[in-house]
TrEMBL record:
Source species of the chain: Macaca fascicularis (Crab-eating macaque)
One GO process term, biological-process aspect: protein repair
GO MF annotation list: L-methionine-(R)-S-oxide reductase activity; metal ion binding; peptide-methionine (R)-S-oxide reductase activity
Subcellular location(s) per record: Cytoplasm, Cytoskeleton; Nucleus
Record protein name field: Methionine-R-sulfoxide reductase B1
Amino acid sequence: MSFCSFFGGEVFQNHFEPGVYACAKCGYELFSSRSKYAHSSPWPAFTETIHADSVAKRPEHNRPGALKVSCGKCGNGLGHEFLNDGPKPGQSRFIFSSSLKFVPKGKETSTSQGH
């Protein structure tokens, strides 16, 4: 189930190279490719963040079981966390669209690491 509009062209849906997914606005590290998994939605799905403060969350009052997620550093809107909808029982699913940029393993910079 997804609550976002999809206009096509999602570049990270089937992208599984090793690396880091960072905020497209400020470059702060958000997700490792190790936490990414294949999902039926057109957006990339992750099970956990890199840092405890990678993202900030707030309830979506009109969407039970969903949290609005933003970058923990700059506040850029990223997408949603769907509670108890991950690949394993009890895991959540984070989904995002064009708010992410991918940094291949070995190409990390101080910007992508949030420094």
